[in-house]
């Protein structure tokens, strides 16, 4: 059994000038890791011949599998395919099955046969030294090259096309070619305690971890995920991971949100689904983001039927029945206002639970009394509404995200401590 | 005048197993590019001594400025600081101003003086060979090292802390140290035409571009951004970019959405603001995401007062007045239903414009007649509602995003072609 290593090369000026965030690398890393491949290096280079060549040389020396994304589009700024052809000592030939597939896409899927141009046809050209990996979702095929015992796989940078090629071909190819060690992960999510304090709590356990098990602290949104990674023979590593994970869960029990690697919105969704309860939202400062998080989970219609975005005071009053006097006396960002928003939404939407938020997300709108980042959250049911003031010191985007995640966590705690409604 | 180059090294196993998406690199690249630094290489390595060392060696040879993020947290999985200390030939000493800052944060900002542990104090230790860059937003300071004429800057991986150190110190340091060529960008957004067709339309113009101006095609959300990048002496490059950008705008005029590098939600927001008009949203399948996009722009309260997430038919009927007969005859995903949703939302929210969407985002819920990805969008005002059927062939997340962006674009076109309400 060998340790199989991989490198990822992403090609494209748009990555280096920061116009595009690289989500492909994270997805590929995650998936490869799951099947036991250790991604040890990732590199991003621009559309520059020498830089691409150099990356191929270097990563080819470093890793067993080299995955390359980007640079395969139909337009003139793409130089990757000719370069790969030259690098692996081939010449470009028309690949008939790919040409038929491109034609099929234009005629049957895009329904625009007339839009197929010479440059689209050229996407069916491949180096004669590669194995073509069919791209069901687009016109640029994947290409597999071998050199000095190393495998190079080039794929387009469009995320769902790359993911399709990986699922349709690459994982299977890797599984067939290598006998791999097991890489296992266990991740839990904690809330309410910082990274340092958690580290203190689990210090002696951490020091006694076997050498093939690693612990990582992943702080995010004011919460901390703890991840155990183990590598080795499958049964042994799974057994050891389970044992250590159980110990860890006991140690952080008081702050444990979930022992699965799922986000807060999914934790709350599962809880509601298990109880057969419905939640609604009344959002001011988060502007629909909490509803979006809830509905981004498939099957969320089981516990979310709708919500109100009451961004302006007019809507808070008109739709949710918040009293004008409450807003003028306490302000739109107050315990009193979010309580009335919550009660109004419960009545309007006829649900079991409610989340209501009102705050100042920035960059403007703060005052000495209520600085930017001040948020009031209300969670509850028809019998009881609880409110909490939060304060985040970040930019608008992050303040919105933190408000949403923390509001969901407050609902979770409410449900767990107050029983079902 | 020299070409100043930079490399970015990100450190952390969480990046290589794909548990975290690297947004730092994009932000750093963008900002550096703006001040004229050319980021030519990005590399991600795990928490592995040899890999970090090797990356420092390699990027130190390659670039003038090496920016390093990650690996500076207070917990045991961080090995970066001792390694940097060793690499640059120093020893760790307690940095008194940083210790005072960490103490201040725990006492005055976190309001938890008792939570300050030995491991937090250790964050104030720095190699005696570095220049400390104060981190106003966290406990781990930035550190600047020099070696063989190259500048290495190490920062924590928490995005807002890294960004703070860059803004407070790094940009100014770079500007003082180097005299840089101008790197300028011009970006426009098109909709309604594919990458290949655009390429045909601008072919001869593109072929005649001066060598210091590069064109890139950046397809996203079914739209295509075109970006010109120029490098050289400031006045000359700005002049040439303006000239070429004007030509490009004329060529793609029929498909031009905006000639600024802003997203669709901001384009629509600016249009509404300029007209002094208000929009509301009635969202089924997008579950609040359109409202979120609108309100993620600062100042959006000028044109968005609120919206309804009517995820379930019950809410569509009860709150928006969609007739039960309409849903049972045509289905919830139909021109008829989104038209009634739109009219209901206009009446409920008393706004000038409305966007209503209903569709099947997947993975389940599709039928032969209405497969996953089918969406009906309605946009309009009290005088006129227009509907359009869309179909996306992607996963839930991407279907939601595409629906939202395209619905906003349909509203934009409605406003431009129907005049103000």
UniProtKB/TrEMBL annotation, chains A, B:
Q: Which residues form the MoaB/Mog domain?
A: 7-176
| Alphabetized Pfam families for the sequence | CinA, CinA_KH, MoCF_biosynth
| InterPro entries reported in the protein's UniProt record | CinA, CinA-like_C, CinA_C, CinA_KH, Competence-induced_CinA, MoaB/Mog-like_dom_sf, MoaB/Mog_dom
Family, per the entry? Belongs to the CinA family.
What is the protein named? CinA-like protein
The species is: Panacibacter microcysteis
């Amino acid at each position: 059994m060998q340790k199989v290593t991989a490198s990822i090369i992403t090609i494209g000026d748009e990555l280096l000038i920061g116009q595009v965030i690289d989500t492909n690398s994270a997805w590929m890393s995650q998936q490869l890791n799951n099947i036991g491949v250790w991604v040890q290096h990732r590199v991003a280079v621009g559309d520059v011949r020498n830089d691409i060549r150099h990356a191929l040389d270097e990563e080819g020396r470093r890793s067993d599998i080299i995955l390359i994304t980007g640079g395969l589009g139909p337009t003139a700024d793409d130089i990757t395919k000719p370069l790969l052809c030259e690098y692996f000592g081939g010449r470009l030939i028309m690949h008939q099955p790919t040409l038929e597939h491109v034609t099929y896409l234009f005629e049957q899927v895009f329904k625009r046969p007339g839009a197929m141009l010479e440059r689209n046809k050229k996407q069916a050209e491949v180096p004669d030294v590669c194995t073509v990996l069919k791209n069901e979702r687009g016109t640029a095929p994947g290409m597999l090259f071998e050199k000095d015992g190393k495998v190079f796989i080039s794929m387009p940078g469009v995320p769902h096309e790359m993911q399709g090629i990986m699922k349709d071909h690459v994982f299977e190819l890797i599984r067939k070619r290598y006998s791999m060690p097991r890489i296992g992960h266990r991740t839990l999510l904690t809330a309410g305690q910082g990274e340092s304090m958690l580290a203190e709590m689990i210090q002696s356990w951490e020091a006694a971890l076997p050498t093939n098990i690693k612990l990582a602290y992943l702080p995010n949104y004011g919460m901390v995920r703890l991840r155990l990674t183990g590598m080795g023979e499958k049964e042994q590593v799974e057994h050891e991971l389970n044992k250590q994970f159980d110990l860890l869960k006991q140690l952080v029990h008081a702050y444990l949100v979930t022992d699965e690697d799922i986000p807060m919105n999914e934790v709350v969704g599962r809880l509601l689904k298990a109880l057969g309860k419905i939640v609604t939202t009344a959002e001011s400062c988060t502007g629909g983001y909490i509803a979006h998080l809830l509905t981004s989970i498939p099957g969320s219609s089981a516990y979310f039927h709708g919500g109100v975005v009451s961004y302006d005071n007019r809507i808070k009053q008109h739709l949710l029945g918040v009293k004008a006097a409450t807003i003028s006396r306490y302000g739109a960002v107050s315990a009193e206002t979010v309580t009335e928003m919550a009660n109004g939404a419960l009545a309007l939407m006829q649900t079991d639970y409610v989340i209501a938020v009102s705050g100042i997300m920035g960059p403007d709108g703060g005052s000495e009394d209520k600085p930017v980042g001040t948020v009031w959250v209300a969670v509850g049911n028809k019998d009881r509404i609880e409110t909490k003031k939060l304060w985040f010191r970040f930019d608008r985007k992050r303040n919105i995200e933190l408000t949403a995640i923390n509001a969901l966590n407050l609902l979770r705690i409410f449900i767990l401590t107050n029983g079902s409604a």
